[in-house]
């Protein structure tokens, strides 16, 4: 095996391994872009960079070397622009919550790692791979220990002849450690049902569970919807 072939194999293998490790972490946590996606993104980025840096091996040998213009930075720009479409595909909005941002960022980072491996910039590539794995795994635990605000979409449905006043509803929610950030109203079923729509804020997920237990025991509430959107 020639030195160039070994170098290409080393760079591609290192990129594939780095992408696989990051993808394993994403797959373990059930994310939409996991092991195979990250492995392919990293390997593809490295492969495209190798195409740019090894032009002399695939262009017409009859051409003079002076006519070959290798510009890996332009290839890197194209890769990072294109990978944005793949990252955007894993981002979706549900209620007040945006899902997939971390996975999109990991795909973008994986592509950057592939570029580094593809040009043979091994030291920063390895360091960045380790840093990425630590960020995805260790920082998850740090985030869980940090105090943060939790929001929830909340809906209450009453029969029109047994609707609780807004002040009563707000007081009930406050008693369970939550705040009403926004509130709107709706009639349905030809005016037979009255709905309160709210966004709740709290600092403890257990407050949401306690509120749900209270609502479940209510004799006047026909239906309720309580969906945490963060935390």
Give an account of the 3D structure.
There is one protein chain. Helices cover 55% and strands 18% of the residues. The chain is an alpha+beta fold and 231 residues long. It folds into two domains: 3-58 and 72-145, no CATH class; 150-228, ACT domain (Alpha-Beta Plaits), CATH 3.30.70. A four-stranded antiparallel sheet has the order 4-5-3-6, with helices on one face. The chain has a two-stranded antiparallel sheet with strand order 1-2. A hairpin with a 4-residue loop joins strand 4 and strand 5 (193-202). Helix 1 packs parallel to helix 5 (122-145), helix 2 runs parallel beside helix 4 (101-118) and helix 3 (72-88) packs antiparallel against helix 4 (101-118). The chain is elongated, with a radius of gyration of 27 Å. The relative contact order is 0.12. The model has no long low-confidence stretch (mean pLDDT 85).
Overall number of structural domains: 2
Beta content: 15-25%
Query: Overall mean pLDDT score?
Result: 85
Output the helix-strand order. HHHEEHHEHEEHE
Rg:
27 Å
Helical content stands at 40-55%
Low-confidence spans: pLDDT under 50, at least 5 residues?
Answer: none
Regarding quaternary structure, what we see is single chain
Task: Give the helix tally.
Answer: 7
Largest sheet: 4 strands, antiparallel
How many distinct beta strands? 6
> Which descriptor suits the 3D outline?
elongated
In spatial order, strands of the major sheet run 4-5-3-6
End-to-end Cα distance, whole Å, is 53 Å
């Amino acid at each position: 095996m020639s030195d160039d072939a070994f170098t290409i194999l080393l760079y591609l293998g290192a990129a594939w391994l780095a992408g696989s490790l990051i993808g394993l972490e994403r797959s373990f946590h059930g994310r939409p872009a996991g092991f195979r996606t990250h492995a392919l993104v990293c390997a593809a980025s490295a492969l495209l960079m190798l195409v740019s840096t090894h032009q002399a091996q695939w262009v017409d040998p009859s051409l003079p070397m002076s006519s070959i213009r290798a510009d890996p930075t332009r290839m890197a720009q194209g890769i990072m622009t294109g990978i944005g479409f793949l990252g955007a595909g894993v981002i979706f909005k549900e209620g007040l919550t945006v899902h997939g941002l971390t996975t999109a960022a990991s795909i973008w980072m994986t592509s950057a790692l592939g570029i580094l491996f593809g040009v043979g910039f091994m030291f920063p590539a390895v360091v960045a791979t380790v840093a990425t794995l630590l960020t995805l795994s260790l920082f998850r635990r740090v985030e869980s220990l940090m105090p943060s605000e939790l929001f929830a979409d909340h809906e209450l449905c009453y029969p029109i002849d047994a609707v609780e006043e807004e002040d009563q509803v707000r007081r009930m929610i406050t008693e369970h450690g939550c705040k009403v950030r926004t509130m709107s109203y709706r009639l349905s079923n030809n005016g037979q049902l009255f709905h309160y729509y709210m966004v709740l804020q709290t600092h403890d997920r257990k407050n949401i569970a306690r509120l749900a237990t209270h609502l479940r025991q209510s004799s006047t509430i026909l239906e309720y919807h309580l969906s945490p959107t963060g935390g």
